[in-house]
Write a structure and sequence with these properties.
By secondary structure, the protein is α/β, with parallel strands linked by helices. The chain has three domains: 177 residues, HUPs (Rossmann fold, 3-Layer(aba) Sandwich); 63 residues, SH3 type barrels (Roll); 80 residues, Translation factors (Elongation Factor Tu (Ef-tu), domain 3, Beta Barrel). Helix content is 24%, strand content 30%. It has a six-stranded antiparallel beta barrel with strand order 12-15-14-13-16-17. The radius of gyration is 22 Å and the shape is globular. It starts with a strand and ends with a strand.
């Protein structure tokens, strides 16, 4: 029986209401504030100092103990190093997914169990249900906030020790609960992007860690239309920041990144959102992870999304050697990006996913 729950409190309204709800339900609640980034934390970009103040303020209001723990080393070793390797290889990683599986539901979970916790809880918008001894990850009731995409690499052991109290609530309801209970951060703006990047200029940040090797921006036909500052600084489907206007044909349609020639150090760009180079019905993924611990029946049709906030798209999945998988979509998908994750759904159940190659 779960009695003591350690809540990951970030200083935001979601984790604060998570702690509030669990205390109201009779659990013995302890807050734990995680610091995952130390480099240039005083540069005005990361707000961990203010976040800690907000978390402590809420804990005081709820009359629960709160501790702070530093996972910066684990974050750098398990998440950030991978993040840099992927960008250097020309791919676009999703560190939030790795952070969940390696930090929040591994390092944090281990630390909480060491504190005597029976379970951990976070402010994620998702649901966990146990059926016949099997833990399943469901989408949140609030479809606009559902975060199952970022949680698809969790396993049975992790889900068995996790709680997502916000999974059945709308974001508007969470704000109302925070206000009704006089939580000081009830109107606090949601954090955006990756913690260690914050609101800073992304290219400026990457430039401090990765080499800059300028090269040509070219069309698929080989026409040079501009100059890039380094392939690591661009992602497929990117429109902003290319520095090139309408095309030579006079249509004035915007340019998009459609590919990377790593050997020739060329950025492939095309004109128009619906250019064929931006659309594909097929992809391959590596490191497939299935939440159940085994692959589902691949003779059935499923749905998948290749990026967060994308609608589920009907697809067929085939097993490939080495634990990889091939995906064939009924309709062409836009700007499928190597390094991002393809996540599989059976209705509202998140089955798992892999990294697009």
């Amino acid at each position: 029986m779960i009695k003591r729950v350690v809540v990951g409190m970030s200083g935001g309204v979601d984790s604060s209401v998570t702690a509030l709800l669990l205390k109201q339900q009779g659990y013995e609640v302890t807050g734990l504030f995680m610091k995952n980034w130390e480099d240039d934390d005083d540069a005005g970009y990361c707000s961990s100092r203010q976040d800690l103040i907000d978390a402590v303020s809420v804990a005081d209001t709820l009359d629960i103990p709160i501790e702070a723990v530093n996972f910066s080393k684990e974050y750098k070793d398990r998440v950030f190093s991978h993040f840099l390797r992927e960008y250097e290889a020309g791919r676009t990683p999703n560190p939030d997914i790795l952070c969940n599986s390696e930090i929040k539901f591994k390092a944090f979970l281990e630390h909480a169990i060491g504190m005597g916790a029976d379970a951990i809880a976070t402010g994620h918008y998702a649901q966990i249900r146990e059926m016949e001894g099997q833990y399943q990850l469901f989408k949140a009731s609030d479809g606009s906030k559902d975060q199952s995409y970022f949680l698809h690499r969790l396993n049975q052991a992790q889900l068995s020790k996790a709680m997502f109290p916000l999974g059945t609530l709308l974001k508007s309801q969470v704000r109302e609960i925070a206000q009704d209970n006089k939580l000081s951060n009830h109107a606090k703006k949601d954090s955006t992007g990756i913690c260690f990047i914050g609101e800073r200029p992304f290219r400026e940040f990457l430039n401090r860690y990765l080499p800059t090797t300028p090269g040509g921006m070219v069309t698929p036909e080989g026409d040079v239309v501009g100059k890039h500052m380094g392939l690591s600084f661009y992602t497929l489907g990117q429109r902003q920041g290319l520095g090139i206007g309408g095309g030579k044909d006079g249509t004035g349609e915007p340019w998009f990144v459609a590919g990377k020639d790593m050997i020739g150090n060329r950025l492939i760009v095309v004109q128009g959102h619906h250019h064929p180079s931006l659309l594909t019905k097929h992809l391959e993924a590596m490191e497939m992870h299935w939440i159940s611990g085994y692959a589902p029946d691949l003779t059935r049709n499923y749905a998948a999304k290749t990026r967060y906030r994308q609608a589920d798209a009907a697809c067929r999945i085939t097993a490939l050697p080495g634990g990889n998988a091939g995906f064939t979509f009924d309709e062409a998908q836009w700007a499928v990006t190597p390094g991002q994750s393809v996540v599989v759904y059976d209705g509202n159940i998140c089955l798992g996913g892999g990294i697009i190659t």
